[in-house]
Amino acid sequence: MFAIYSSTQPVEAIEQSDAQTRAAEVSGNTPAAAQTAATIIKTNTIATAPAKISPIKPGVNADYEALVKKQAEDKAKAEAAAKAKADAEAKAKADAAAKAKTQAKVVTVSHQTTSQPAATSGVNKGTFKVTFYDPAAMGSSMGYGGIAANLSVLPRGTRVKIQMSNGVTLYRTVNDTGGFAAGNPHQIDVAMPNSQIPAAGVLSATVTIIG
User: Fold this and answer.
1) Pairing status of strand 124-133 against strand 146-148
2) What's this model's pTM, rounded to 2 decimal places?
3) How far is CA 33 from the centre of its chain?
4) CA distance 81 to 65
5) Can you tell me whether residue 180 is helix, strand or coil?
């Protein structure tokens, strides 16, 4: 026969451990219960006194802040440059308009200065030296209805009555000037066919403006 030995705890020890566990379960003092109670207490503390809890402060992104600042500065510079360009273009346009206006004024004054005064009808301009020329013989197509004169004395387009010293009266219109006019303003060169030019060649005449 063989004897059997067991290493199990005595019945009394097992019964005592089970009894303690049941007692803890009945009283609610198990480790899990203790942890749950601690969590509830902490939660209640936060709910009843939130001011005691340190607030959460958001962090600052330095790179993002720098980017936003640079973008704002670039925008301001671009707007300033655009305004400066617009102002410069407006000034240039105004200067050009002012210059054009000044030039137009100068031209107008110049024209007024160099233009020939209108002749007054019925005014006797005095005695003139009369010479003659044939436009056709000179290759000109101006015809025989005009005379050449000093345009500051007899403006172009002036209608005149010419009472020549040979008794002939002519009516002509000033339509030309000649090289003689600068040295002898009181001379007229009458257009006439060669066949009709007086034999004397040079006469004197009283010139009266008629229109």
Assistant:
1) unpaired
2) 0.44
3) 85
4) 24
5) helix
- d(CA 207, CA 123) in angstroms, rounded, equals 9
Say if residues 158 and 209 touch (Cβ distance below 8 Å).
yes
Residue of 200, 202, 208 lying closest to 190 (CA atoms):
202
The bridge status of strand 159-164 relative to strand 169-176 is: antiparallel
Contact 152, 116 (CB under 8 A): yes
Amino acid, single-letter form, for residue 70: K
E-strand stretches of 9-53? none
Q: Note the pLDDT tens digit of each residue in 164-180.
A: 999 999 999 999 998 89
pLDDT tens, 92-131? 888 877 777 765 544 333 333 334 455 667 899 999 999 9
Give dist(CA 136, CA 20) in Å, integer: 155
DSSP state of 139: T
* Strands 124-133 vs 169-176: parallel, antiparallel or unpaired: unpaired
Residue 208: partners with Cβ closer than 8 Å, 6 or more residues away = 122, 123, 124, 125, 160, 161, 163
Cβ neighbour number for residue 139 with a 10 Å cutoff: 6
In DSSP notation, 82-121 reads HHHHHHHHHHHHHHHHHHHHHHHHHHHHHHHHHSPPPPPT
